[in-house]
Q: What sequence folds into this?
């Protein structure tokens, strides 16, 4: 006799395809098609009054690296490459700073009693309830001329006068770390929480001091959370717009602004699209690299 | 307390008036006893009796509410776990999943500062001791329960602790493996000469492996002695009930004469048997083990008439349920002496027991 569940609708192969249709449709309409359009735009020609014409060309990609001279010769121009480089460096440094700051916070929260934990986790997520623009603007008050930091330093007599902390890589870094650090704290906290308490006891039992236990047991075992947090911080940092716009001033740009600039004031959609594709490709390469590393590590362990 | 074990040397662990209160719950009333060097010592009791709490206090994971603990004569009160020269085998084994087996075993050695060569030699020795040489580079996730158990033992024994604490280490294993691990644990203890403090709720395990057993119940010591003492001379009803099987018969104490008491048993007879804590005029129970009742009755023993109401054939033994009056007695008979099926349900039978093999226990 055939068990009932094998003939029921859930196991029907047709249902497997049609049942998932809504999901596939959403993915298609909101992800695949738009990306396709952007790829198309990135290979098209800039229109005379903004917009674009469907005339195939690789010019936008060339434009990322080269300037076209009067006679059509290509001249290397690193201006966009510098933006890409700055974006990668800032995203990496932001991720590292977030990692360093988040671990102690997450560990501290995990040591509290259950009722306090809930409150502390709520406090970590609290900034998300306020508009991102407002939060980033508030850093102007802190970092800016006559801002909180400058006033405090002057009051303490440390300095007489100082250059503004605003409008530069430092201000952007502060803004980025501030904006994305909760995305690092939460997964690390989850990782530490999942950690088997007996392992910590075993470490103490085997003559491991608190420091040894932290270094050799707790930190290595919360690596999945650190990895997840790193991706959650690094990827949006690559596309950050607000922080460079508000805190970086007009002088220092990141890829997010560059794209926005091309689609907006510069009216060069194909170039904007090409930069977007480069950004997306670099994110994909980064994630693939991490994924492959994880797979390779796993197979190494299985082979052992 | 008579502790004339051949293993008896110095004191390894001294428990002096140690008690533990969690909030308003008294997990352990003040207890005092010693654990000697090079013995297999078992803390035995039902769940919630305080045995694990006591073990965790020796390890340093819990602090006693009162009293103090000494290790080889030195007070270790207030020392954190990593400053106590005892190692624990955890119930869940708690092997580090991000380390190979070698690294797991070397962990404690690194923390106490052994140099590389000595460390590597010790790790190899330990792997050999638990027959896991081939698995050195594996990770705990790739092992079976019994193999993890062995590595947990190797890891805890590697730093040459002054005592090894085992927290129900066999409870996660299946029956067959558990049996084999018992022998292995006993052998390991003899080979290493390290004092083992073993916590279990399994009385059979305790009887099988231990040099001494401390029976805990309701947060206090019920009895401390060798396995034979605890089985043959239970000090109270709790111990007689918890260790092995027994028949309890209500009894009234007629008189107490030193180590013995004269009692009138509910079955009608009056007899004189060894006693513990019996008081004249107070109710007591008489405990008689199933294998101490003769079936059929033997001359010179106290006879009882009854009917067989149940037969359980268990291979080596057959258990008979004999009803005499209002009481049902469990009687066991080794099948090598008489063919099974010799007695049948419904058959009238005469059984007997010697007064000396019964125990009168005060409430």
A:
């Amino acid at each position: 006799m055939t068990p009932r569940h094998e003939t029921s609708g859930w196991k029907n192969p047709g249902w497997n395809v049609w049942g998932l249709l809504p999901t596939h449709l959403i993915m298609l309409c909101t992800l695949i098609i738009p990306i396709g359009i952007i790829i198309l735009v990135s290979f098209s020609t800039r229109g005379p009054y903004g917009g674009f014409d469907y005339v195939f060309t690789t010019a936008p990609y060339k434009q990322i690296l080269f300037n076209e001279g009067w006679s059509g010769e290509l001249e290397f121009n690193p201006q966009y490459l510098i933006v890409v480089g700055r974006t990668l460096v800032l995203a990496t440094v932001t991720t590292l700073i977030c990692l360093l700051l988040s671990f102690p916070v997450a560990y501290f929260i995990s040591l509290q009693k259950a009722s306090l934990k809930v409150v502390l986790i709520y406090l970590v997520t609290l900034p998300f309830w306020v508009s991102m623009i407002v939060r980033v603007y508030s850093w102007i008050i802190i970092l800016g001329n006559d801002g909180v930091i400058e006033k405090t330093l002057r009051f303490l007599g440390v300095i007489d006068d100082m250059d503004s902390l605003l409008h530069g890589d430092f201000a952007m870094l502060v803004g980025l770390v501030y904006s994305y650090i909760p995305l690092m704290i939460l997964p690390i906290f989850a990782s530490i929480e999942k950690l088997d308490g007996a392992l910590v006891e075993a470490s103490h039992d085997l003559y491991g001091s608190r420091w040894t236990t932290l270094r050799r047991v707790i930190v290595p075992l919360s690596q999945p959370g650190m990895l997840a947090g790193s991706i959650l911080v690094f990827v949006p940092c690559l596309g950050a717009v607000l922080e460079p716009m508000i805190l970086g001033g007009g002088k220092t740009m990141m890829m997010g602004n560059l794209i926005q600039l091309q689609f907006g004031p510069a009216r060069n959609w194909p170039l904007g699209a090409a930069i977007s594709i480069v950004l997306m490709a670099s994110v994909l390469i980064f994630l693939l690299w991490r994924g492959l590393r994880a797979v390779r590590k796993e197979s190494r362990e299985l082979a052992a | 307390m008579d502790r004339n074990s051949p293993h008896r040397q110095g004191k390894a662990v001294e428990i002096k008036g140690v008690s533990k209160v969690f909030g308003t719950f008294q997990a352990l009333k003040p207890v005092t006893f010693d654990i000697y060097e090079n013995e297999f010592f078992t803390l035995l009791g039902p769940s919630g009796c305080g045995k694990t709490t006591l073990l965790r206090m020796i390890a340093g994971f819990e602090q006693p509410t009162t009293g103090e603990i000494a290790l080889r004569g030195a007070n270790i009160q207030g020392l954190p776990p990593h400053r106590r020269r005892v190692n624990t085998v955890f119930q869940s084994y708690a092997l580090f999943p991000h380390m190979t087996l070698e690294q797991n075993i070397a962990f404690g050695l690194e923390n106490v500062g052994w140099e590389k060569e000595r460390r590597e030699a010790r790790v190899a020795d330990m792997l050999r001791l638990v027959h896991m040489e081939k698995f050195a580079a594996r990770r705990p996730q790739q092992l079976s329960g019994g193999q993890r158990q062995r590595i947990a033992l190797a890891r805890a024994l590697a730093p040459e602790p002054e005592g090894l604490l085992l927290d129900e280490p066999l409870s996660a294993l299946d029956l067959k493996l558990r049996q084999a691990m018992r022998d292995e644990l006993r052998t390991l203890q003899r080979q290493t000469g390290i004092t083992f403090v073993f916590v279990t709720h399994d009385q059979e395990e305790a009887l099988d492996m231990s040099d001494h057993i401390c029976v805990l119940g309701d947060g206090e010591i019920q009895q401390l002695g060798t396995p034979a003492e605890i089985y043959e001379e239970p000090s109270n009803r709790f111990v007689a009930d918890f260790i092995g099987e027994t028949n309890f018969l209500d009894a009234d104490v007629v008189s107490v004469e030193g180590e013995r008491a004269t009692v009138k048993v509910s079955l009608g007879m009056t007899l004189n048997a060894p006693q513990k804590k019996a008081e004249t005029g107070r109710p007591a129970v008489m405990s008689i083990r199933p294998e101490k009742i003769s079936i059929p009755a033997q001359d010179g023993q106290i006879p009882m008439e009854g009917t067989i109401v149940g037969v359980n054939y268990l291979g080596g033994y057959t258990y008979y349920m004999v009803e005499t009056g209002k009481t049902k007695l469990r009687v066991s008979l080794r099948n090598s002496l008489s063919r099974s099926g010799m007695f049948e349900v419904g058959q009238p039978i005469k059984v007997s027991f010697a007064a000396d093999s019964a125990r009168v226990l005060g409430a």
About this structure: Chain A touches chain B through 20 residues (CB under 8 Å). DSSP finds 15 helices and four strands in chain A.
